[in-house]
Design brief:
Layout lengths: L1 H7 L26 H7 L4 H6 L8 H8 L25 H5 L3 E3 L2 E2 L1 E10 L3 E2 L11 H18 L5 E3 L3 E4 L5 E2 L2 E10 L2 H22 L2 E10 L2 E2 L2 H15 L4 E2 L14 E2 L2 E2 L6 E4 L12 E4 L1
Parallel strand pairs: 1-11, 1-15
Antiparallel strand pairs: 2-10, 3-8, 3-9, 4-7, 5-8, 6-8, 12-13, 14-15
Helix pairs in contact: 6-7
């Protein structure tokens, strides 16, 4: 869409523009998240990404082969000068603030964990409440702490439990094991680590109080990242030309999505100046002006 619009208007850019679609950037099916860009930047190897499996045991390699998307170019061996990503805003911040354009100065630090609470399965009828080892009840207490900790560390604290697996998942059986995801984020690594530690502290107390096993395993860690100031200013100037100064604001927004996180290339910054432009193809909710949000 972006390159087609440039061509339609006869705009000649100072450097060539290429379009890339990264595989598994959201991490909804496979771990690690930001897989395609991560391999490109050298954050992890191609074979590591190929070996990742989904909940059904299917690998990335097998699924790419199945749909005919196994490529032959060496990842990362493609020089680029700057990197911008077009995307709609996936949150409600701009609309809530009444701002058409928000220029985002950085990305939140992210920590992902898997938590497993193990109790004992038992029949729901004959088992008295005092004698139960209900994994789900303990797990829900910990889930609530994920949210409560984020609220204590606002305004940029985030805490999400997005995946829950209950075993044996039967209507009349007390759950014996619960596995759930933990996603915590904040504006600095210190704050996000503090949130994670508060969750671990409660898990230790719950384990001591109930006798149930609680295991919290780290999955992914992404540091908080400031964006390239040159890219941010470029987006700001362009946005103000489109909408005027009132429509473009360096609003107090930080990138909330994991896939906005710049990848690091093993000791050096990624090849691109990381800045992200989120742009709706048409006006948002009937707005007459285009909605553009710069993130990285």
């Amino acid at each position: 869409m972006a390159t087609r619009t440039l061509n339609d208007h006869g705009i000649e850019t100072e450097a060539p523009i290429e379009v890339a679609f990264w595989t598994n950037e959201e991490g909804s099916r496979f771990v690690p998240v930001m897989m395609g860009s991560g391999v490109f930047a050298g954050a992890f190897s191609l074979e590591h990404a190929y070996a990742a499996t989904d909940v059904d045991g299917r690998t990335v390699r097998d699924e790419l082969e199945r749909i005919g998307y196994i490529g032959d170019e060496e990842p990362g061996q493609h020089p680029i000068g700057a990197y911008f990503e077009t995307h709609i805003e996936q949150g409600p911040v701009l609309e809530d603030a009444g701002v058409t354009i928000g220029v985002v100065p950085g990305v939140l630090g992210i920590r992902w964990f898997d938590c497993t609470v193990t109790g004992m399965e038992a029949h729901a009828g004959p088992t008295p409440m005092a004698l139960r080892r209900d994994a789900l009840q303990v797990a829900t207490t910990l889930m609530q702490e994920v949210v409560a900790s984020a609220l204590r560390h606002g305004p940029h604290g985030r805490g999400t439990v997005g995946m829950v697996q209950v075993h044996p998942n039967s209507r009349n059986v007390i759950p014996g094991r619960v596995k759930f995801s933990i996603d915590v984020r904040n504006i600095t690594d210190e704050r996000v680590d503090r949130q994670a530690q508060e969750i671990r502290d409660l898990a230790a107390r719950l384990q001591a109080q109930t006798g149930l096993s609680i295991q919290i395993e780290p999955v992914s860690t992404y540091p908080a990242q400031a964006f390239d100031e040159g890219c941010i200013q470029a987006i700001t100037r362009a946005a103000q030309r489109l909408c005027g100064p009132a429509g473009a604001d360096r609003h107090d927004l930080h990138s909330l999505q994991g896939r906005h996180q710049p990848q690091r290339n093993r000791g050096r910054t990624a090849r691109a100046h990381q800045c992200r432009l989120q742009c709706a193809a048409a006006g948002d909710a009937g707005a007459r002006r285009p909605v553009i949000r710069c993130v990285q």
